[in-house]
Amino acid sequence: MPADAAGKAARGKDYVPADYTWTTQSKNSSESMPCGGHDVGMNVWVENGDVMIYVARSGMFDENNTLLKAGRLRLRLTPNPFNGADAGFSQTLKLDDGAVYIKGKDTEIRLWADVETSAVFAEISSKTKTDATLSYESWRYKDRPVTKAECQQCSYKWNLPKDCTTYQDSIRAKGNTLVFWHKNREQTVFDFTVNKENLDGIKNNLYNPIGGLRFGGELVAPGFTFCGTTDGTYASTDFRAWNFKAEDIKKSTITLNLYDGDKAPKIPTAKESKRRSAAWWHAYWQRSYIIPADRNDNTDNPTSKWQGILRNYELFRYMLGCNAYGEWPSKFNGGLFTFDPVYVDPKTPFTPDYRKWGGGTMTAQNQRLVYWPMLKSGDTDMMASQFDTYLRLLPTAVARTKHYWGHGGASFTEQIENFGLPNPAEYGKHKPGDDYGMERNAWLEYQWDTSLEFCSMILQAHFYTGMDITKYEPLIVQCLQFFDEHYQYLAKQRGVKALDGEGKLILYPSSGCETYKMAYNPSSVVAALRTVTEQFEAYKAAKGIQDTSAYALDSTFISRIPDMPLRTIEGDTCIAPAIVWARIQNVETPQLYPVFPWRIYGMGRPGLNIARNTYLKDPHALKMRTHIGWKQDNIWAACLGLTDDAARLNLEKFADGPYRFPAFWDPGYDWAPDCNRGGAAMIGLQEMLLQETPDGQLLLFQAWPREWNVKFRLHATGGRIVNAEIKDGNIKVETEKTK
């Protein structure tokens, strides 16, 4: 019997996630519901009887590196079936088939995105004949100057040129069809960045994904006819609407086909897309789940706060699945589901394209939290967009390293553009004679280690599922090689010896995240180098790689990694942030990174008390503790078996957000909906339930309150799927193999 069939037989019937339903209309776009698939995200809501949809697609970056929305759709039926006390209105996100259903009097609209192409479908069904108006609404019907207040939406940030403009789209409508596209100029923020960062000499060797990029879509509405344009305002933004009318229709299926390039690709019929998309989503939910042990239906009715966080876990995992196969990873600062910014912050009355911290800019410390939970949820196929992004940027990272410092390895910065260079504003101001490779930025200087987390994710994806990661081997090697060569290079700039008296690297100046600056051997960097090197050695051994000549990394590198810095607090040994540091710049707690993500300390591992002492006694860790945004205290508490703290912090982390959809969280340190908060919350919940020792022994419910009756299906290393339940303190567990 195949592994998936055996697993199904062991579990009984397939898992069906709970529907999520509203029975009243929404006030505005902040009260929208997510819907999507493949690489498309939609915000769906019904306002004053109008069905409203924002559509976004991964990779729609303009000249300024703003991540543009495709536009807004508005559908109005006459007479309106959604208004009135007798309408019986409902809006349901049916997770099992990944679609939103809007129902009213004698009418249903089904919305979904195809899971294999970038196509959106809206299926209208009415028992009686109805008139309808479909509008494509665009705020990019004209050139729009980007104001200084809006600068965070693009990569220029506070280096905004005086003539910075979001250029208008080309929009054409005829009959039942509308086409729109945006064609980037050849000169973009990429060119500005290259020049500012003194890289013109190697410009032709650098990756440029936005120069000349063309993207757009084709809207087809059978039974409708274009009838002209009108102007209006929504929220704080003026727009132009291209309107289509239909009379006496009962059925119509509207399609929106999004694409790059000059020609719309072929898309499936609505019937085929509905079938295969529903099948994909159903299979998606069979991969993993965390649900109350006594749940016996598919209605959304959590009866306690802890059951509510399980619902929010599922809703956020749905949001991640909407960009399962995008060329570009899901953005930490809103993903594909941002809405009118004035509803996030009244001080930002900007267009729907606005988000704080940029569209093409990736803050790696935040971004990583979106992808770590995919290992245990069994979604390693969805991690490829993040892995491949780093792989595309590798030649640029190697070229800039060689250009600036003359040695090997790949330097990936913390705030990095989708073309692989530091954000030009965060890069800082340089003068002749400065080291142009260093960011002159109080938060970001000397921070290069986050790329190692993605290297570890790649290796663990292999350990979990057997994923073929051969193409990523150069990425892992070059990231490690950079630290080996660069810190020997820096040591030789200061003195005669490249290593310290024990033959170890001198990691100075370095950085403990953005917090402990001008640090000497920060524990987060030491742990990163040791863990990734050990994981890579284990990978090579398992793969039977004997000849290491193909790897530029010296086989003795691991012996040069410094020891973990420790210190004593109130008589107890703790992990130190570093041997020494000059200042504290931010509110991260890198001294607990050796717990997660690096797993040197934790349950079933040596030195557990050292890590617990750090969590419980380090004055900075205590002062900085919170559940907000990208904070990881909930994860560390779970990894250390501190049940009370893990329960409290995860309840706070996964509590309903302030907007109508529970998994749309407030901006935190970033933007709404806060996706790195959702990722950190997922990790914390998973760690409460399932951990592993270094030799792969499973540790169940290490930080789970015994009175919370729960069952889960999660993934572990070695291709294992763990099905477990705790009910009234009694534990049941079954393990399957996926290969």
UniProtKB/TrEMBL annotation:
<protein>
    <recommendedName>
        <fullName>DUF5703 domain-containing protein</fullName>
    </recommendedName>
</protein>
<dbReference type="InterPro" id="IPR043757">
    <property type="entry name" value="DUF5703_N"/>
</dbReference>
<dbReference type="Pfam" id="PF18961">
    <property type="entry name" value="DUF5703_N"/>
</dbReference>
<feature type="domain" description="DUF5703">
    <location>
        <begin position="21"/>
        <end position="290"/>
    </location>
</feature>
<dbReference type="InterPro" id="IPR012341">
    <property type="entry name" value="6hp_glycosidase-like_sf"/>
</dbReference>
<dbReference type="GO" id="GO:0005975">
    <property type="term" value="P:carbohydrate metabolic process"/>
</dbReference>
<dbReference type="InterPro" id="IPR008928">
    <property type="entry name" value="6-hairpin_glycosidase_sf"/>
</dbReference>
